[in-house]
Amino acid sequence: MIEHLLEPRCVAVVGASRTPGKVGHEIVANLVSGGFEGTIVPVNPSAEDVLGLKCYPDLASFGGKVDLGVVAVPSPAVKAAVTDILNAGAGAVCVITAGFREVGQEGARMEQEIVELCRLRNARLLGPNCLGLINSRIRMNASFAKRMPSFGGISVISQSGALCTAILDWAAARHLGLAKVISMGNKADLAENDFLQAFAEDGDTTVIAAYLESIGSGKDFVKAAEAAASKKPVVILKAGTTLAGAKAASSHTGSLAGADIAYGAAFRRSGVIRAETFEALFDYATALAMQPLPKGNNVAIITNAGGPGIMAADAVEQAGMRVTPLATNVATALREKLPAAASVGNPIDVLGDADPVRYATALNAAQDDDSIDAIIVILTPQAMTRPAETARAIAGCLNGSKPVLVSFMGGEDVMPGREELVACNLPDYPAPERAVAALRAMCDYAAWRRRPERVVARFPVNRRKAERIILRHMRTGRLQMGEAPAKDIMRSYGFNVPDGAVAATCQDAVDVAIRIGFPVAMKIVSPDVIHKSDVGGVRLNLANPDAVRDAYDLMMLRIGRAAPEANLEGVYVEKMGERGREVILGMTRDPQFGPMLMFGLGGIFVEVMRDVTFHLAPITRDEALQMLRGTRSYKLLEGVRGQKSVDLDSLAASIQKLSQLATDFPEVQELDINPLIVGTVGTDPLVADARITLAGRRDNAWHGSH
Amino acid sequence: MIEHLLEPRCVAVVGASRTPGKVGHEIVANLVSGGFEGTIVPVNPSAEDVLGLKCYPDLASFGGKVDLGVVAVPSPAVKAAVTDILNAGAGAVCVITAGFREVGQEGARMEQEIVELCRLRNARLLGPNCLGLINSRIRMNASFAKRMPSFGGISVISQSGALCTAILDWAAARHLGLAKVISMGNKADLAENDFLQAFAEDGDTTVIAAYLESIGSGKDFVKAAEAAASKKPVVILKAGTTLAGAKAASSHTGSLAGADIAYGAAFRRSGVIRAETFEALFDYATALAMQPLPKGNNVAIITNAGGPGIMAADAVEQAGMRVTPLATNVATALREKLPAAASVGNPIDVLGDADPVRYATALNAAQDDDSIDAIIVILTPQAMTRPAETARAIAGCLNGSKPVLVSFMGGEDVMPGREELVACNLPDYPAPERAVAALRAMCDYAAWRRRPERVVARFPVNRRKAERIILRHMRTGRLQMGEAPAKDIMRSYGFNVPDGAVAATCQDAVDVAIRIGFPVAMKIVSPDVIHKSDVGGVRLNLANPDAVRDAYDLMMLRIGRAAPEANLEGVYVEKMGERGREVILGMTRDPQFGPMLMFGLGGIFVEVMRDVTFHLAPITRDEALQMLRGTRSYKLLEGVRGQKSVDLDSLAASIQKLSQLATDFPEVQELDINPLIVGTVGTDPLVADARITLAGRRDNAWHGSH
């Protein structure tokens, strides 16, 4: 039980040592010096006492009930230690010891043994190969990092123990409180999803900050992260973003996607605030822990120096927020209270000699003004400046209606002010730009919290038909599906596909053309021809039976010559479609997060400009519209130079239908609709070409999901 | 003389006061407590002595020669004070007092008077309305900021006095040395260009860091900045980037340009390193002051913690640099010296228990490896970590062959290490990403320093003809030039323009068409018709005389109906051109920096994607090629999907010719060649349409430049 890990009343340290510097010593020392409120039980057969605490040869000798056992013995002895702990009734084990999965197969086997031991006894395991954990409310430092943080609202999950030590050291220097700090180590059992879930429910935790290098199950992560983010902010720094190896992909969508894009889509989907840098992780977490969320993006800036005020204004505008002037009556009233040389525009310049009262006056005005959603206060240490009193004055007039972020710029002169700010729950940043970035993160999260309820529409489709086509194709053993069956699948999912059929002979082709009506297009059907146009395998605008006949014979003749070994199954004859805006819809299945949908404008926009957006399936209408708006070329969809807008709703519906298809059929590995032809409002987009690749391995698919 | 300002032997403080807190007191106190090596002369008719120094009623009473006079009297008394100072032989005056141009017209007039006084006596003026200045080598703190920095290589120029105080406070907390600190105030006389010039020559200054809100003369700035950047790094934070008001522009180029883009172009041109944030300003300056420039962008990362190593690697790749593995023999040799669990890949992981020797071993390996150009060293405070000794070990093995940047992550535990690092001239950053950003700035600057010599080619053109066309058009009083004369100008500058001529009658049009050969295009010629296509004023592909006749009559009829008031001068008949890739070349004249050239791919790439690059004229071939490569759509020029590359050289030459035209004729305010049709290698780009707007005011143009 994770409560035994996070809130134990009795902690045993197996491998407790009398030798300072040894991990088994440091953990006991940290528990003692941290002031742990519960019982500490050192275990070591060769010691009478450790740091004045009675030491037991094993937990059987102790006899009492243990909640959490911390293991710091050499790896070959870990299994016995865990058994001893479990026998003492512990619901949680934390294995500090390294030398498991991270060193090779034998280590992995030992790790698995420990996991099984715990599972059999319904106990949870943290680690192995971790730093331990801290719960500052109950003063438990069950780690070998010596700093005990003060109590505060941020809980930290880290996949790097070393980063925990840096964070603890850093937080101490800034007097920043932390609720819980978890070093996850090898994540043999407990992992990010467990802690997201636990911290979402944890009354002490107001913000969850995590450093992750990998995640276990993508789907569970999205679920846990969304549940947590719906209750409190979750800020994650995901490292390893660019090192994703190039993966072989047979579709545009697959070649444009990648692990980092998948993480981005998963974070967006689940309301996770992504920190791009280590500093951003705590810049954002601090603001979110200390201040209310903004209701909009209108920002007032209060400063005692022009330059930094301009810097802040630049940063606000570059971040897509607004430097909004005070309401006229508010500005007029404020002008009377400030010296003549002060500016009541935005930035509000309270002048270099501003005293604490002047700051408070300006802050009250901005706080009372409904046209302002957030306030940034800047202070530089000038001759008359009183940083500490100003900090107290700022804190004194806060009414909690909107976020106030502060930048006290400088060093030692402003340090007393900084300490006051932290004590008063005011997030402080060394430069205005960092305050603005934190505010931007707050705005994004607030917008996500205000999002409409997620409703994934289900369209009426002929799922059984699509299933039959897929099963039939799977029996061929080929992964790449031809245009005809791919289009049949699209048709069965309610897409508008031009009439067409495969013709095996010249006369067939003419018959098909006559049946569907001229003009028609003709495309070669062959599993051996990938780039149809390159070998003359595509003919457009065939207007009559003779043209069809000529095209058929020439196509067969020429491709037969160019690729004599190719198996030519016939041609696909289809009705020529209307013209319109070409877009690409795609889907690729991420190994972590499952189906990812892609949207982009066709041709060079995707291939050269890489102007595409991704979103996880299943998708809502709102999210599909966001995908459209997320491209740089969105204006083209809305119409430029007097062109009409395309039918954005039906385009969004196409994305939703693709989402439904991707969710229904795990055996579809990649899919490109390229192009989808989108017309003006009232028209139904047309699938001009479609390409489907099935999943290679059977186990990945089908029966599991049906 | 600026030397009198920066290196005075005798400083008079007029307005010296016995009252602590008064500016006139603080300046004397700062000079005294800073330990100024020269003579300090307090001047105040109502004091006998100030801080133990004899005080004079005026400088005549002092009798000696003064180099620099600092003025801290109320604004009405400033003029007399300046006169007194100049009479004492001072070559420089620093007016701290505010209440001049920044408060209105009367202030501006007083300011001008002081400027004139100084100019008459060949003296230079700093301020008014400034904080003063500091020269740390001679221990002169002639400012009312109380902190005297330690001596170091960075010189600071700031347009914000408050920012100076924040910088001084910040530098003190980081033990960072500064050479000179200048608060420029109103810049009535001395401004950024003077200090760029002075610091370029200053032996104490190794890096120039500036905060600017505006600049005086753009051209002089580019000259001064380029000269300075050719000798030492110049890092500038330019504030007010987004607040540039929308400006009415009649061309695409004009509407896409703006003050911030102009500054960007000017900085690129002159080798200035642009800092986007306040922290970046000193992050970059510190690295540049302390470490040699990298020869390339291959980066090695040394770390005692996996997570931060990955963060650094992510940042390196995102910044467009490379995480390069050590050479095989170097890696093999290193492996033997490190514990088995260490990694000699990149990042090089020296493990959590790394001692100083292990860091030094890894650093030596990376330093000796010719495949590595720069090194980032990361330390987290783990149980066995010794930050101070590690810092000394790192410093001890540096050979100065390549830059080493350090990130000691944490707070108090690593603080002793941080102080050692600064003392050893090692730039230290609180997070790896900031070290990487600083390294990126170093790489960019190093690349600029390695640039080929700037040679602006001059093409043989018919300048006199272009001049005649411009003069003739100016006499009409219209600013917008028609297509025919604009194309004549392009022709005279060696551009390939389709044959064509204006025809005033239907028969004229036919005659012109026959002379130049069919097919032809026809476009309405009217000063009152701006958007020709919108009113049916463009007809293409007219294949024979009848088609020309029909088109002429219909065009006159319809436009006559649609815009009865329009003055229709005739039609422009020209030969239809070849097809090719459409690009836009443009020019707009920035009020600060003069002619700015623009390049982008035609149509939506410019209008929707805003995928354009700018560069100042005059331009070199190398810079023109950079403009092409700077667009996101560059690949389209090189050819995608088997298309051939366009003739990049002749496209660059077109930009160079446009540059020459812009430089030759200041009366050309804006110019769009839209589109320029570019063909494959060996073809000459074709000017399909051109549009020229002349400068409105005469004084802005012509006679000054000829």
Keywords:
Rossmann fold; alpha/beta; 21% strand; flat; disordered C terminus; homodimer; 25 helices; seven-stranded mixed β-sheet; seven-stranded antiparallel β-sheet; 706 residues
What does this protein structure show overall?
2 copies of one chain form a homodimer. The first copy, chain A, has 706 residues and is an alpha/beta fold. The first copy, chain A, has 25 helices and 30 strands. Chain A has 5 domains: 129 residues, Rossmann fold (3-Layer(aba) Sandwich), CATH 3.40.50; 142 residues, Rossmann fold (3-Layer(aba) Sandwich), CATH 3.40.50; 158 residues, Succinyl-CoA synthetase domains (Rossmann fold, 3-Layer(aba) Sandwich), CATH 3.40.50.261; 113 residues, 2-Layer Sandwich (Dna Ligase, domain 1), CATH 3.30.1490.20; 125 residues, D-amino Acid Aminotransferase, Chain A, domain 1, CATH 3.30.470. The first copy, chain A, is 39% helix and 21% strand. Chain A starts with a helix and ends in a 12-residue tail after the last strand. At the A-B interface, helix 6, helix 12 and helix 17 of A face helix 6, helix 12 and helix 17 of B.
